[in-house]
Fold each of these.
Amino acid sequence: MIIKPFAPSPLTIGLQALVTRLQPTHPQYQNLQQEQKIKEAGDFGEHYVMKELRQTALLNDCHIFHNVILPSVLPMQIDILIIVPNAIILLEVKNIRGTVHLKNDPRQLIRTSESGEVHVFTHPEIQLEQYIQGMKHFLDTQNISIPIFGAVVFPFNNVNIHREDSGLPILMAKELPLFLHKHIEKSKETSTMNEIKHIVLSHLRDRTPFPLCQYYQIDASALRLGVHCENCGQFGMKKLRMTWYCQSCQYQCKDAHIRALLDYYMVVGDTISNRACRELLNIESQYVAKRLLKKLNLPSTGSDRIRKYDLFSLYWNAPQKK
Ligand SMILES: [Zn+2]
């Protein structure tokens, strides 16, 4: 049973907004575009594995979580956590194509793409070992003792893996049912599973790298302003009385400004003034800007001209991030 379903990572959604808004001539543009692709591929792989797990009858009575961050002495961001009757299983998903060399001393993952480009990544075993230790520590603080297993999962057969030495299991997604079968003892006893599920749920943390301009040290003046048309990709939708209108493709959308304000939250900062809102949406009237902001029921601080609207709730309630 899926307890916490798949959702794209905040960094992926944020990078999509940043890359869309960054001037293509910016020196960091290509690197960020590359990073966006890597993050999107990572999310795609995690989504695929979650779908496979949902269809695994063996897990019908188990609890599955996507993207778990828990308070611990060691930083933890577990791609997939599964609570089974007698154990906890952590999966680290790596959607990397090409030829992958997992080398020791020092442990590194070296990927050579089809075009011969070489990239070096953190060895997934290092992350997984850290998450297993972090999870042990977290459960210790809750007075729970249960075996914790982990595996690195490559979702697709588009990778050719070379490994120097044995260590934690490295699996293809199709091997997961067999791996899980080995680790799940048949048990009718579900009280421990439910207890751990509730503990995990009540300690879940959210972490975002926003605002990305600060995270990547980019000056906000390098961003493209205006309301972006989701239909044709052009900036500069015009505010009409009831809607936003794209002059390039005639697309209309009532809520196009909300997407722009979300971009602002993820990329520039968590609060916005009336003036910054007018610049962002490319509207002249402060009354129109005020009306748009008021309608969103955002908490605000300060009065009149120095009023700042808090965009936090806009992000956390946004359907796009689900
Ligand atoms: Zn358009």
Note: The chain is about 35% helix and 20% strand.
Amino acid sequence: MTQSCATYREEDVLAWILRDSDAGAAQALAEHMALCPACRERAAEYRILQGSAGGFRNDPVIRWRRFDSPFGAMRVAASVAGLVALSWQDTCDEAFVAGLERRYPSTPVVCDTDELDPAEEQLTEYFGRRRPLFDLRVDLAGLGDFQRAVLDAASGLDFGETVTYTEIARRIGRPKASRAVGNALGRNPVPIIVPCHRVVRTDRTLGGYTGGLRYKRTLLGIEGRTDLLS
Ligand SMILES: [Zn+2]
């Protein structure tokens, strides 16, 4: 059941999803949504109803592009089903593309700036604290069942919410597997979008993060979790 919100009406949230609201209103609502579970829940429901949102054009290629981010050059890639990779660790385009070609040996990998515009736009908004919720599909096909279960569980975490590795292990029905959960999160092909940075240790220290803890710290800072950063 959808909770109610005293500040915004359903129409406002729908307009935001459809990108009908003007820039000022869109930013105000995005900032509000960061703090309002009711509006986030509504936005998530509309996103599902809208169906096509976040989808990609329907020809069998892997598309990728590069853009600048606060973490440096960021590269994203998508299949027709959704995002398959996000990386700021690769030293050059060739290394990123080679990784995609290894993963998808029978699918052409093409650079396509336009089709991945929404990914750049939404990540830029997120880094600017203007987007608490991504409207982008993720394609986790091809990963093992255990890793998918772990990443699915992490995907359910809300903006600014953290849980422990142990809790993720419990949620996927493998309560003793918290170390394996950590490994599976460490190999998350679509970080930030699948928010593995929201999983921390039982003692509230941050645990690990691929590419360095400072990124995890930055992401949690964007989400207002300064309590975890001391
Ligand atoms: Zn609200």
Note: The first helix runs from residue 10 to 17.
